[in-house]
Amino acid sequence: MTSPAGAAAPRGLAALRRAITAEVEDVNRMIYHTLRAGTLACAVLLLAALAYVAASGTAIPTDVVPIPDLVAALGRLTPAAVLSVGLLLLILTPVARVALSVGYFAREKDATYVLVTLIVLANLIAGLVLGIG
Amino acid sequence: MDASQRGMAGIEALAALAGVSFLAGTAGSFLGIGGGIFLVPFLTLVLGVPPQVAVATSLVGVIATSSGAASVYVRDRITNLRLGMLLEIATTAGAILGALVAIYLEPHVLFFLFGIVCTYAAVYMVRTRETAKDRAERAAVAPEATDRLRLSSMYLDPEDQAVYRYRVARPWAGFAASAAAGSVSGLLGVGGGFVKVPVMHVLMRVPMKAAVATSNFMIGVTAAASAFIYYSRGFLDPGLTAMVVLGVLGGTAVGTRLMLRTKPTRIRLVFAAFLLLIGVLMALRAFGVGGIP
């Protein structure tokens, strides 16, 4: 075989992926961006807080800031507050993904999956309320 | 909590924790599990962290594995989103039920049963070969519920550049098994990815890579509710958790690339070996040996 298979294969792969992308619905894109944004924002905040702690020579915080005090602590930009917000963002990312999926399926008028995602969301909230998860 | 409660949490300990988290993130994203099964023992046995703090830290690590890996698998369309969302009903409801009935159950019996189930699934996965006939069968047979719920899907495997189209078998049996998996994972304090992958792959005949990706997608949701509760109760140590999260996220970048490039049969073998290990540990714990969750 003399044809440049190495060059041709990726183009074929990209074409195949586009063909699949066209057929599989685009809730994928929304979920990808949600998960990506959540993890990136968390990583940036954690790295920034740790870099500040390392540069200033202060001790690494050992306690998260309680949610009611979070806004005030964030105003003072303490490392504990920045770390806490970063971790909370990460924890809430999957919940946000479920909530946004409800909206997506509602726009698509896909009643079955609106119901499915709403039940998941209700279970999550029930778990939180019961304090068990 | 004061710093002494972290155990030997010096700079060396934090660096070691980040390293272990990196490995947990790699293995977790490669196998479709959360990685808590590696993190909790390291935190408690090596770093001497109190169990509740270890579980809280590990749960956030599970979310990091899930979100980090799932974003890649969702982008590449390996994840079966509808199947994942449907089974999330079962796993989240199961987790609540499991927590409610936990006090009535004898844990030793549970660990023993669980050990048997894991060992059986491991043996099944090693003995049952993925054949062309399997793939043909997947493409041909679909129960009515599968069509109604539009669970069938397809993906492009970058390893052999082939398109795999598949239908989901036994949707209701899989749903029931996922509810059981959710309740058991609530009882044992683990994410439960090592139950979800065999349920989808062995019971529902979902291809291995799609099962791994879909399991990774699901585990974050179950862990999120519990992690939020641990946060509210003040069990999270931000320094430890930040190390775990950053290590895990780095690991998922490696694990997802490895998974996409590996032959499904290899992933099956690694998963079977991992299941066998879990099965033995669970059975041992049934007889009161070992401090592994």
Radius of gyration of chain A: 22 Å
- Low-pLDDT residue spans of chain B: 1-8
H-E string of chain B: HHHHHHHEEHHHHH
Query: β content of chain B, as a range?
Result: under 5%
Largest sheet of chain A: none
Helix content percent band of chain A: over 70%
Biggest interface, chains and residue tallies: A-B, 61 and 64 residues
Main beta sheet strand tally, sense and closure of chain B: 2 strands, antiparallel
Instruction: Give the integer mean of the pLDDT values of chain A.
Output: 84
**What number is the mean pLDDT of chain B?**
84
Distance between the termini of chain A: 59 Å
Give unreliable regions of chain A as ranges.
1-8
Which structural class do the helices and strands of chain A define? mainly alpha
* Total number of helices of chain A: 5
Oligomer: heterodimer
The overall strand count of chain B is 2
Our count of domains of chain A comes out at: 1
Number of structural units classed as domains of chain B: 1
Summarize the structure.
The complex is a heterodimer of chains A (133) and B (293). Chain A is mostly helical and 133 residues long. Helix content of chain A is 78%, strand content 0%.
